[in-house]
């Protein structure tokens, strides 16, 4: 008890204080770190391949029920390619790594009512016991805590157009600078300033490579951006070797593995998309939308202004990234064993 501890001349630990115990009950404070599902824990224990997946794409990126269908299909693709999927989200204030199908459905139905959760939001969402959809930054944090090195998503955040004056730079980029997880994506959407995004990643010390036969940096809906990565890596084994080297050197920083959208699903009219994006950016400015709301706003506008064809491209590239990311995770687990 408290008295006995005091008599021994020690201060009772924070966790033992009655007030703290009450607060924990009331505010759903997790005991420590993240909660990893049984399937993911089992795979990690034997050094097996695991792929982390984010959840903002489920709640804010697509409408129900396509979001649930896509999430389930992406997990299936990961399994077909020999890896274990670990979707990350905050449920009832607990940071979870690995969701079952019922939990995925719960999240998909919550949709936009879930809190979009990047690094800065995590503590508040946990303290309040809320449902949080993790962005790339928060998913990287959870993945790293669980010791997962490969993470698959659609597109990463970046420097927004006009970011040189608004200072709207996604927390994804600083997270990539400080957390050693490889993020497999289709590059950066042209709703962002791709050139400045790559400059910022360079400053943050983030390795940026393209997957396949070209060092062109892809721009989500299209295979080109007019900018180059540091290199092109042609096989999952090369990517795994890069991740292994990053870990061996203890750099502590993350990397971007950019996978161009499959040719057949790439947007045929980049100029049309560009016009749509410019309209959406202007409308966002007019309505005074800023902070974490601007990315979902522009994505939604682009979706409706392209009559849904962007949704099909989005689903295609996420599945393709899941296939490539899983192959990389498999190659990495062979390399490490
Ligand atoms: N880019 C996309 N689709 C997305 C996102 C970005 O093409 O769904 C989401 C990701 O979860 C990413 C987040 O981490 O938006 C970045 O938000 P912000 O720009 O507010 O940092
Ligand atoms: Mn922002």
The small-molecule ligands in this entry are:
pseudouridine-5'-monophosphate, manganese (II) ion
Relative helix content:
40-55%
Average pLDDT for all residues? 91
Give the ordered list of helices and strands.
Answer: HHEHEHHEEHEHEHEHHEHEEHEHHH
CA distance, first residue to last residue: 47 Å
> How many strands, which pairing sense, and closed or not: the largest β-sheet?
11 strands, mixed
Contiguous runs where pLDDT drops below 50 for at least 5 residues: 1-12
Number of strands: 11
Question: What this model shows, in words?
Answer:
This protein is α/β, with parallel strands linked by helices and 337 residues long. The chain is 48% helix and 13% strand. The chain is built from 15 helices and 11 strands. Strands 1, 2, 3, 4, 5, 6, 7, 8, 9, 10 and 11 form an 11-stranded mixed beta sheet that branches. Helix 8 (136-145) packs parallel to helix 10, helix 12 crosses helix 15 and helix 13 crosses helix 14 (294-305). The model is unreliable at 1-12 (pLDDT under 50). The protein binds pseudouridine-5'-monophosphate and manganese (II) ion (MN). Manganese (II) ion binds at residues 168, 170.
């Amino acid at each position: 008890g408290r008295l006995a501890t005091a008599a021994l001349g020690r201060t009772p630990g924070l966790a033992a204080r009655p007030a703290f115990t009450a607060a924990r009950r009331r505010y759903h404070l997790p005991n420590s770190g993240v909660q990893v599902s049984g399937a993911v824990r089992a795979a990690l224990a034997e050094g097996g391949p695991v792929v982390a997946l984010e959840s903002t794409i489920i709640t804010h990126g697509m409408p129900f029920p396509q979001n649930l269908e896509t999430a389930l299909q992406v997990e299936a693709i990961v399994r077909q390619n020999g890896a274990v999927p670990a979707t990350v989200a905050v449920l009832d204030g607990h940071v979870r790594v690995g969701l079952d199908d019922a939990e995925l459905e719960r999240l998909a139905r919550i949709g936009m009512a879930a809190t979009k959760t990047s690094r800065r939001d995590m503590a508040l969402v946990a303290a309040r016991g809320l449902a949080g959809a993790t962005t790339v930054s928060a998913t990287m944090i959870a993945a790293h805590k669980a010791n997962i090195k490969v993470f698959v998503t659609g597109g990463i955040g970046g420097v927004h157009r006009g970011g040189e004056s608004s200072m709207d730079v996604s927390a994804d980029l600083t997270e990539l600078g400080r957390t050693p997880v490889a993020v497999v994506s289709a590059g950066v959407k042209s709703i962002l300033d791709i050139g400045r995004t790559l400059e910022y990643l360079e400053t943050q010390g983030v390795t940026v490579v393209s997957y396949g036969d070209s060092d062109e940096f892809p721009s989500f809906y299209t295979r080109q951006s007019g900018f180059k990565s540091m290199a092109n890596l042609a096989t999952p084994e090369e990517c795994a070797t890069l991740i292994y080297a990053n870990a061996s050197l203890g750099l502590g920083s993350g990397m971007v593995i950019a996978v161009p959208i499959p040719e057949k699903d790439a947007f045929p009219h980049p100029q049309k998309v560009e016009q749509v994006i410019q309209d959406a950016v202007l409308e966002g400015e007019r309505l005074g939308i800023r902070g974490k709301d601007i990315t979902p706003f522009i994505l939604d506008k682009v979706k409706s202004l392209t009559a849904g064809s962007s949704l099909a491209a989005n689903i295609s590239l996420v599945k393709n990234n899941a296939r490539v990311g899983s192959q990389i995770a498999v190659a990495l687990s062979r390399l490490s064993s």
